[in-house]
Task: structure prediction
Amino acid sequence: MAVNLLDFDLEGLAAYCESLGEKRFRAVQLYRWIHQKGESDFEKMSDLAKSLRGKLAGAAEVRGLPLISEHRSADGTIKWLFDVGGGNAVESVYIPEEDRGTLCVSSQAGCAVGCRFCSTGHQGFSRNLTSGEIVAQLWFAEHRLRGADGERVIDNVVMMGMGEPLQNYAALVPALKTMLDDHAYGLSRRRVTVSTSGMVAMIDRLREDCPVALAVSLHAPNDELRNELVPLNRKDGIAALLAACVRYLDKAPRDFVTFEYCMLEGVNDTPELARELVKLVKGRVPCKLNLIPFNPFPASGLKRSSRERVMAFAKVLQDAGIVTTIRKTRGDDIDAACGQLAGEVQD
Ligand code: SAH
Ligand code: SF4
Result:
């Protein structure tokens, strides 16, 4: 199959151009055509040397993901379903806000972590996406939505779609680099967020290779409960996870980690657990808490915490001086809310 140029960060593209006997600076031109202009037809890349266009024609392509469907929510949220072959599909969600646009990107078809409250987790794992398939989601969305003024639409990317990004590390890093590169999307490091269920060794690697904003899906203040909700907690445990978060902050673009906490009625939403959470993090990990009302799906057997429960939980944290937000549910009329991304997975 032809080489997919979406797989490369700028370094990779420069090495590829060199392998074709072309100067490295040509890669910058090519990279800009692809990511800034959204062009996939080499013949239309008018200032690109004819010789390079000729060499690319047979060997390479800019291969986006085939679109299966597009759904638009009443609140402006858009969900796209992409075909990744073999009966698998992944989803991306665009979330417009007053002052910015966020794209929620998938990293895997399915997920092997198997969190109890997550519909992707219930499907099992099918395969890792390639760097090109991760970047293709942004490439598509940005150029689909960009108007005639050419102004950037997406200024925020969250790796919170399907999959555990740190279990697909080798593909993740070049994709992040393309999101950040000024010759491509030029996103600020503070506005690219990797969300992880907490793989300690990989958090340390990300800190060295490509420190972006970090969100950790905590969901419980003690190992007993977290082992039940997030099975991979059994490997490292919460103490090691928090230590990795603190190490990460030396190099991170923000001075806090975001802890996500999915509010499940009668499971992890009591005031006692909120107090335990305060003890766990206060004065130890600079953090913000983001409470996510659980988005139910049939097979989970779990329920969303009531508004009162969520508010009471938030109050305990806030009274202890921990910045706490409650995530607004967006796009639930099109099943695009957190944890509802199911795509289609052949396990
Ligand atoms: N695998 C990564 C990123 C994808 S999930 C992770 O777990 O962090 C993105 C966020 O959605 C996570 O915080 C996850 O815990 C949350 N989530 C999963 N299922 C959910 C559900 N049914 N309702 C609300 N949030 C959910
Ligand atoms: Fe995987 Fe994240 Fe879902 Fe857990 S919450 S199963 S890690 S996608």
